[in-house]
Amino acid sequence: MAEEQRVTIPRVKLGSQGLEVSKLGFGCTGLSGIYKPPPPEEVSISIIKYAFNKGITFFDTSDAYGPHTNEILIGKALKHLPREKIQLATKFGFVTSSDFKGTAINGSPEYVRASCDASLKRLCVDYIDLYYQHRVDTSIPIEETMGELKKLVKEGKIKYIGLSEASPDTIKRAHAVHPISAVQMEWSLWSRDIEEEIIPLCRDLGIAVVPYCPIGRGFFGGRGVVESLPADDKLKANDSRNLNIISNPIHALVAYLTQNALVTCGLLAVVLEITSKVHG
């Protein structure tokens, strides 16, 4: 029997403050039923353990996923893994109503601290490696939010600070209060807006960019992937939605090729690199 080929996942530094993670991360959202009914808890935990055993050490969650249930799940999974070898990212900012039908955004210092303490408890950990503001609260000066996050760093509750979906001005102002290690933004073959300002700014400031939805919310997984989904699956709905938003000829070509299974995700990565240089 042929020996199983082991893939080594390289390490990469996020930002300039020392955070090092596996280059391939694991977004835990889908384990809590965001896109489809969640798998049984024991299956979800086994998936996380499997990912770690394959070399993934960077796990991303949020108090908004579930809400709260995703963090609880990750906390249970971490009991089976060496905490010192895990880089754990979670987020705060979304406030869900008691009936789970509405959300607001809160970046007040009091909410920042309360959210961090609650996440630490749900995750069953003493510290969070990377703590993101999930969305920016435009009613609160970013300097106030960052001031409280800076205190949490000094107290050892969090190690590094991140922002998600922040504007260039907000990133610069936040970074002036305390170094930002990572900015999480949607970035894929057809979500390219951040390449004009955000990417150059983060490069200049030494901030890492962590892409979410890098394969177009499942669309670039290929035609076979989409056809195998149930009719009510949210990823299938995204497939139809994304077909209607293609405006760039390069994006349209790539969409056609992937939908007809004529290219692989590996080739897409090459296309992304080439087109980034062309447009950069």
Automatic annotation (TrEMBL):
NADP-dependent oxidoreductase domain sequence ranges:
23-234
Q: Which UniProt keywords apply?
A: NADP, Oxidoreductase
Per the record, the domain of life is Eukaryota
Entry's Gene Ontology molecular function annotations? oxidoreductase activity
Q: Can you name this protein?
A: NADP-dependent oxidoreductase domain-containing protein
